[in-house]
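Researcher: Last one for today. Full complex below.
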Amino acid sequence: MNDSPNFHMTPDEFRQAGRAVVNWIADYYEQIESYPVLSQVKPGEVRSMLPPDPPQEGETFEAILADVDRVVMPGITHWQSPNFFAYFPANASGPAILGDLLSSGLGVQGMIWATSPACTEVETHVLDWVVKMLGLPEKFLSSGEGGGVIQDSASGATLCAMLAARERVTGFASNERGCDGRLIAYASSQGHSSIEKAAMIAGIGRGNLRIIDVDEKYAMRPDRLQEQIEADLAQGLVPFYVAATVGTTSSNALDPLRAIGEIARRYGLWLHVDGAMSGTAALCPEFRYIHDGLELADSYAFNPHKWMFTNFDCDCFFVADRKTLIKTLSILPEYLRNKATESGAVIDYRDWHVPLGRRFRSLKLWFVIRHYGLEGLRYHVRRHVEIAQEFVRWVEEDADFELAAPAPLNVACFRHRGGDAINQAIMDRVNAGGEMYLTHTKLDDRLTLRMSIAQTNTERRHVEKAWRLIREAAAAVTSGQT
Amino acid sequence: MNDSPNFHMTPDEFRQAGRAVVNWIADYYEQIESYPVLSQVKPGEVRSMLPPDPPQEGETFEAILADVDRVVMPGITHWQSPNFFAYFPANASGPAILGDLLSSGLGVQGMIWATSPACTEVETHVLDWVVKMLGLPEKFLSSGEGGGVIQDSASGATLCAMLAARERVTGFASNERGCDGRLIAYASSQGHSSIEKAAMIAGIGRGNLRIIDVDEKYAMRPDRLQEQIEADLAQGLVPFYVAATVGTTSSNALDPLRAIGEIARRYGLWLHVDGAMSGTAALCPEFRYIHDGLELADSYAFNPHKWMFTNFDCDCFFVADRKTLIKTLSILPEYLRNKATESGAVIDYRDWHVPLGRRFRSLKLWFVIRHYGLEGLRYHVRRHVEIAQEFVRWVEEDADFELAAPAPLNVACFRHRGGDAINQAIMDRVNAGGEMYLTHTKLDDRLTLRMSIAQTNTERRHVEKAWRLIREAAAAVTSGQT
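Model: Here's the assembly. Have a good evening.
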């Protein structure tokens, strides 16, 4: 029987095409500032360039790569541009891209230890490194009763923490019989939308998520948290989970972990702390104050795929008590039974998150940590904070603008004093210009501009240019040249 | 202010390191059959080769890559080996690896349309192609009321379908007030463990997942499903969701979709169909009978990351009514508001799954479809089925072995007639030998060996060798040479 034709890319074809893609990416980074940061296409424009039907016959790799330029590139918003100041960063870096490439090449499944022991053990080990790198509480080390796992996103971590909390408070009865609508979760009004989404997914109901007021710094008020817990208890409800944030998405506010943690301990709530972007700052000892009180938390997550130069997806999720998490998410069908699992000597990460299958995501994190070393990572975090603080001073010194919230780290919330319409017009104008991209939030119901200064390649000159563009846009807008 | 030192990999360093990784992968595929398929390391062996603390200073890329060989490779189970017959495949291919590499290089977030329109539009478009390629019902096309999205895994798809079903039946009240323990889901005893996990996560409770008996082919019995629904209704419970499987994980059984779908329609249940591996067979018109009745389903998922040569993660999830899914998972914080979303003219995939952030995963699927063409994809699927059917005949012709279940496609369940201990010993022996890797299941409580014949590079000669190794192991085991 003839095994040809084959259709597969041969190793030599892969070498050639692979080199072409590597060079394409290197060229891209060299030219990235020549693209408009925010894609300027209209809805449907990208699709209109694609044929309605899939190809019957295969095409050359050159043809495919040419269509990346022709079809895809106009529809790209350049998250890796040093002029990207929108949302939070989603940083790539050379070592991360290549670690991920190696993961794709190996193509292993790490659902259980036995299906590729290195995929599990490198992950556990590197996450222990991360505990030390950030100075996190030792209870999150795998050598004790805790441990870390890579999740797809902070949303996944928030959900898994809420599920473990739900099972802990119900004695694992919700897993068996479902929820009963009496469990109550807590987060501040500045908490991430994924907390509300988790409450929906987990069968808690968003009506059972209590939104706690914030103080003038947009941080959760512990007194209000305690009052709300007391009020819920008085109604016979069951407080079970509080989500605190280190660096809120909107304004980078720091919730007071210690005070919240003490309340969580007192009332038996699971405290989950989300440091999605800002957790990375703890690489530098001078910023570790943001985690003060974290030893009172049951779980913690931050995303190297935001500020730590590690490609999405890479959320590091730590728990103090891995047994509860595992018991919450464990299932063991016959076809996954194996000696290593039954010996109890290994970790099976399938039981630490929602999906069963999992890639070798720790490779890219391992590559990043080894390429930069602690020294290199700290250097860039410090630079970003330093430049952001300089931006803050420029805002404060300009009579037309004001700072809208404290800026403890690398995010500046600010606004033109002319009101919402002016700020909206400024934002639209700078983003349409293509030279930079920033986004907004609302604080105290007022439209507020955000500069998130943390992209891998952002340097002082990019922020300087951004501030010039913002002021030029303000001048044009306020003089009516819209 | 001096912007050096920098620590980043320069574009030229990236070109060089990237070429090294591309060549490493090409070499790996050339040598892959020289590795033991199943990793032979002991628990802790990989970790013991890693330093206890992270490096203070950065290291060279050569040093990092050398440690991949030294530390990682002994702990790899080679899913990409043509001698991998375990579980289900997790196929990589050249175009998929390079599509994923490009996605890493671009590093965009596709959480909403505006954050990179191409990431959303290529995905929607390619998933419409997939509907046509597999001959799926037209209601899953984005041009009507349905549409497709890439999920991380079939587990994610099963969960999202269950959540949408939960909200449909409760009029979106569960999202608001939480679950009430009265909703009942259904799956066969051969359904995937992710159904039970979804019932736990979604607040339904696994006690409210009814396990329906199967027939002699291990397919769900529709009569038993109907009886169980009636019994639950009689108790005042609320049947809401049934999961059917096209190609069960254990024995590749095909649930009768039409009969199940008619019952689902009659009682108002959401029918989710999981074709994780076997759905790919529908690329070939002669295998499309497996989806007979799929037009009665509310949602469908299959994984190009299993049999369709597209690296994990890439689960294609289709819904007939996207509005219900979106309403189930939608959240809209101020910092994600934008004109395109508010115009209603675009898709924001953040509302189609659990995570907020998302990679440009459709690139690899687009690359695979264009590289192979329908012709190339069909060729390999047909070859795998053909070889598997040949394996089935070898088993049937051997007096010492028996087929344990029908083998409609590419998975053969079989056993030695000597009983469980003999089969366990055969499996342990062939897996320890390193020349192949297969796993087991239980059918009718008897240990059953599985040959899943679908790895990208598996050809007839690999299966021939596997059968020889299995028979040699059987001979050794039964003659006492263990």
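Chain A touches chain B through 166 residues (CB under 8 Å). The two ends of chain A are 72 Å apart (CA to CA).
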